[in-house]
Write a structure and sequence with these properties.
single chain, alpha/beta, 22 helices, serine protease, protease, hydrolase
Length: 586
């Protein structure tokens, strides 16, 4: 029986292996064919901008890898902006169609794409936008277009920004599972959800000011492109003046109500072709393959861009996690590369491990001693994200960047009440006075709490010192804008935490200017394994993605995000310098 079982298993294994090889062969053939076709963008074409996958600042795959992009779940912001820049000077591309997006990106990323589209229009090319429905962020992007259209039974969401914070005090009391929290900072939002059932006035004030600053930035951009005053746009938001296509036209948010075939008629007219069938579309994914081969910045001297994106954890790190392993290796490579004359650190992180943040800060400081370091902030560069940025020669942020949150805290779960309710009694034995420091099943000792509090205070003081040195501010000045307070990019410039408003390209130009470079090429760090490589290394990767898809379908997107947050919480070790909570701004 064992022989038969082993024989059948070997046959099945061989068939499975041959199946994988066959699929790889088909993929390779299709990619070879695609490589021949990807450059054949037809004359008189429209670039179709559909952004329906999550957008990360950087995917980190090798552009010339034929398998790059396979099994990738996200689109790279750097590739999207580069494609638009290439299309601007591509005579075959006559315009862009922003078509039926449900953009999964932060406000700063959306603003960066919007700015690149404004630059595209400066070449005298058209941009049209169409959607069956516009969520608020979708409309913000679409409003850059020359003309904005909507389906006759479509919906436009334009009502202002909001966010929601969950509070767990009652849940802790009812479940017997309590979070012991030790912090520094008068803005108690970092721990407030565990200690209270409602929002404090301090927290409400900072969130309100943050949301108003982000909203004002969006309204300013929309006002400029739609020729509607900012006060009128706020009235439209307050009265839901765009809630139907008819109201949206009267309010000036939309130019016309069309079915999709009628919208294609508009594109036909713009292209000067006879019928809709004569429209030549180039999808973004197709065009990215072509544009990735077009180098726009050239020169023997280089500027390195090091992308740091995701929460900060102690360890190696990866495409969506900042660890000292991969990031420091990238910074050291950029520092020791003689052709690299300046480094741009792109930060998109809510923070995380204070220890890891300081380890990365050290490498940034060492690099700054030998060549310029400029920071570009993405959607969020807060707490630990700001920590690693603070020592740069110059810091840029988008107006809609969320930054600051200079504060530290520690959270420790305690199951004492639950253990008592279910009949668990824990007894400890130790050799020395402090051998038994903490148990999940015992009330926290005052000596242990004092020990952690001391560590929190030391870390906070170190954080203040790093910012004070990097920003040329006194400790008192830093402390006055710290205390865990979050700021928009616009506010951060006003309080001295950021030097200028600008995007990644602005940061690159500043780095070149400081280094005295007129011509230069770009090198991007770090390089990650492609999704296909990760899939081949771990065939379970596909099943994990499949399981996540099933779970998300069963419990819904919001519940799935809470589950992911809980999973993330399990990985947080030590003192944290991170955003107080995940801000989902709607």
């Amino acid at each position: 029986m064992n022989f038969l079982r082993n024989f059948l298993a070997s046959i099945l294994g061989s068939l499975f292996a041959f199946g994988i090889l066959f699929v790889m062969f088909l993929i390779f053939i299709s990619l070879v064919g695609a490589s021949e076709d990807e450059a054949s963008v037809k004359k008189n074409s429209v670039l179709e901008l559909q952004l329906q996958r999550p957008i990360s600042d950087y995917t980190g795959t090798n552009e010339v890898d034929p398998f790059a992009g396979i099994f990738e779940q996200s689109q790279g912001l750097d590739e999207i902006i580069h494609a638009i820049e290439v299309a601007k000077n591509d005579e075959r591309i006559k315009g862009i169609s922003i078509n039926n997006n449900f953009i999964i990106a932060g406000l700063a990323q959306t603003q960066a794409i919007r700015k690149s589209l404004e630059d595209f229009k400066s070449a005298g090319k058209f941009i049209y936008a169409y959607a069956d429905f516009y969520m608020q962020r979708d409309y913000y992007l679409a409003s850059v277009a020359d003309s904005v259209f909507i389906n006759p039974v479509g919906v436009l969401d334009f009502k202002g920004l909001s966010t929601e914070v969950l509070y767990y005090k009652d849940l802790q009391e009812k479940s017997g599972i309590k979070m012991e929290v030790i912090r520094h900072g008068k803005y108690k939002s970092a721990v407030e959800p565990y200690l209270e059932n409602s929002m404090s006035e301090d927290n409400r004030t900072q969130l309100s000011e943050l949301l108003h600053s982000l909203w004002n930035s969006m309204v300013t951009d929309i006002s400029r492109n739609r020729s509607i005053t900012e006060s009128d746009l706020n009235i439209i938001a307050d009265t839901l003046g765009g809630r139907t296509p008819e109201y949206a036209i009267k309010s000036g948010l939309i130019d016309d109500i069309l079915f999709y075939d009628e919208y294609e008629g508009k594109l036909s007219n713009a292209l000067g072709v006879t019928t809709n069938k004569d429209i030549n579309y180039s999808t973004l994914d197709e065009y990215v393959k072509y544009s990735n081969k077009k180098i726009l910045k050239k020169g023997d001297d280089k500027i390195a861009i090091v992308f740091a994106q995701g929460e900060i954890f102690y360890g190696e790190g990866g495409p969506d996690i900042i660890g000292q392993g991969i990031i420091n290796e990238a910074i050291i490579k950029a520092r020791e590369d003689k052709k690299v004359k300046a480094v741009v650190l792109r930060v998109n992180s809510p923070g995380g491990s204070a220890l890891t943040s300081d380890i990365i800060w050290r490498e940034v400081a060492l690099t700054k001693e030998v060549k310029p370091v400029v920071v570009s902030m993405g959607n969020v560069a807060a707490s630990g994200g700001y920590y690693i940025a603070a020592g740069a020669d110059k810091i840029f942020a988008e107006p809609t960047t969320i930054t600051g949150s200079i504060g530290v805290f520690g959270t420790i779960p305690n199951l004492t009440e639950l253990a008592g309710d279910i009949g668990i009694n824990a007894e400890q034995v130790g050799t020395n006075a402090n051998a038994i420091d903490y148990s999940l099943f015992e009330t926290m000792k005052e000596s242990f709490k004092n020990q952690v509090q001391e560590s929190i205070e030391d870390t906070y003081q170190t954080f203040l010192e790093r910012v004070s040195q990097g920003r040329n501010l006194t400790m008192a000045q830093v402390d006055s804008v710290a205390q865990g307070r979050v700021w928009s990019g616009t506010e951060a410039v006003e309080v001295g935490l950021v030097d200028e408003l600008g995007n990644l390209d602005d940061a690159i130009k500043a780095a070149a200017e400081i280094a005295g470079l007129e011509t230069y090429g770009i090198r991007k760090f770090p390089k990650y394994k492609s999704g296909f490589e990760r899939f081949m290394e771990d065939l379970e990767g596909a099943s994990v993605q499949f399981k996540e898809t099933l779970i998300k379908k069963e419990i819904g997107d919001e519940a799935f995000m809470i589950l992911k947050e809980l999973q993330s919480f399990k990985e947080r070790k030590g003192i944290q310098a991170r955003m107080p909570f995940a801000l989902d701004i709607k």
